[in-house]
Write a structure and sequence with these properties.
The chain has 435 residues and is α+β, with helices and mostly antiparallel strands.
Length: 435
């Protein structure tokens, strides 16, 4: 439709009214100046007025009348422009309302619009009708909505208090009201989890409801599935630990039945290695987090087990453990446990001959956001400088180097200064840190 057509018609009407108004004003002016009689004012002939105006009217009156004509023409143009702007504004407003209604009608959000202090409903979209079952004629007022949507009195009170807190916070911060998740009872009695949002524009209030029911149900199914998998993992770790304890017990029985001390020591070393791996699964079984192990309790349990296997008490050789709040993944805990087992076992066997009293220190700490350091030291007799510990015949030290460099992707160095010192540096598991 051409919006200019009615505008032109109204423009011609305005100009016609301006000319009529000027004709009346000019006639009154002529009457007051006594240039024409009342009869000429009413029954004058066409054309005679212009001649009289040009020939008999004094010049100052002619200019005055021209000025008035121009003034009324300008006034007419301004009126036309005002009407044009008003028409465009009304057209844009109607178009915006149509676009908003089209979006609201197809929106997945439930939309409820109300006006006035009583919050009388003036619009609800199809999603609102579908979710809650109320039509525009049936939708309850704000006062009626609360007991219908929240029939439980205690829950209704809880929702009301939380809503008032959010409104007060929004007023204090001069911000929008934060969305609130609630359980809403629909017209048919069914329950839905809705996230409500609310804004006010002038006297109109807009309430938006996002249906989270299916999302919450999916979350509950995922949580139940994860709980089931965690239970299965716990059972697996428990059974692995039990199986390793059986293997350790068999090795211990076999060692006790032998008379050859060398073979017995080999079996005890193997038993301790099995115990080190079993300690990992034992700590995972006790832990709330099935993907990581906190080092401090793990190292304490491991070293106590080693001392017990060598039939040593803490008065003969004291093992001191210090650790930051460091946790490592199960993939790193197994090789690290074996490394600590080999270092402690080697120290107990060789650093303190004739059961000489001594001390062993194990300290773990973070060097930075990526690297973890484990420092092992004892105050025993130390490894002779002439021995290349990486190429020795000792299986234990070979395991230490291999596990540190190939399993942990780290580095390990030995220092000899009033005993033996090993410094192991490795990167924290990225899977653990990202999790």
């Amino acid at each position: 439709m051409d919006n200019k057509t009615p505008l032109k018609t109204r423009g011609f009407l305005v100009i016609s009214l301006v000319c009529l108004f000027y004709w009346i004003a000019d006639s009154i002016w002529s009457y007051l100046s006594f240039e024409y009689s009342l009869r000429n004012l009413i029954f004058r002939q066409p054309g005679s007025y212009l001649d009289t105006f040009l020939l008999k009217v004094p010049p100052y009156q002619t200019f005055s009348r021209i000025f008035v004509i121009v003034l009324f023409i300008i006034l007419g143009v301004l009126v036309i422009r005002f009407m044009d702007r008003q028409q465009r504004t009304e057209s844009e407003l109607r178009k915006a309302e149509e676009q908003f209604k089209a979006m609201a009608d197809t929106s997945p959000l439930a939309i409820y619009m109300s006006e006035g202090v009583e919050q009388r409903a003036t619009y609800i979209n199809p999603t609102f009708i579908k979710l809650f079952g109320y039509t525009l004629e049936e939708v309850p007022s704000a006062e009626q909505w609360w007991p219908l949507a929240y029939p439980d009195e205690n829950y209704r009170k809880q929702v009301s208090e939380e809503w008032q807190q959010k409104v007060a916070l929004a007023i204090e911060l001069k911000s929008e009201i934060e969305p609130m998740e609630v359980e809403v009872t629909c017209k048919d009695g069914s329950k839905r989890i809705i996230s409500w949002g609310y804004i006010t524009i002038g006297e109109k209030s807009w309430t938006f409801g996002h249906d989270l029911t299916h999302l919450k149900q999916a979350e509950e199914r995922i949580k139940a599935s994860l709980k089931e998998k965690e239970t299965l993992l716990l059972e697996i770790h428990h059974r692995v630990k039990n199986n390793m304890q059986v293997i350790s017990s068999l090795l211990s029985l076999q060692a006790d039945a032998l008379n050859d001390d060398n073979i017995r020591k080999v079996l005890i070393d193997s038993q301790n290695r099995v115990k080190a791996m079993a300690a990992v699964h034992e700590n995972l079984y006790k832990s709330k987090n099935l993907s990581s192990i906190i080092l401090l309790p793990f190292l304490r349990e491991l070293t106590n087990s080693i001392l017990t296997s060598y039939r040593l008490d803490t008065e003969a050789v004291a093992v001191e453990i210090g650790s930051d709040e460091v946790a490592i993944s199960i993939e790193q805990a197994l090789p690290l446990g074996l490394i600590v087992n080999e270092l402690v076992s080697n120290s107990l066997k060789h650093a303190f001959p004739n059961r000489h009293p001594g001390k062993t220190h194990i300290n773990t700490n973070r060097l930075n956001d990526e690297n973890i350091q484990l420092r092992f030291s004892d105050n025993g007799i130390g490894i002779p400088p002439s021995i290349d510990w990486r190429n020795t015949n000792s299986l234990g030290l070979k395991l230490v180097a291999n596990l540190a460099e190939n399993q942990l992707d780290g580095s390990i160095e030995m220092e000899i200064d009033a005993g033996t010192h090993f410094v192991l540096i490795f990167k924290e598991d990225h899977i653990l840190t990202n999790g």
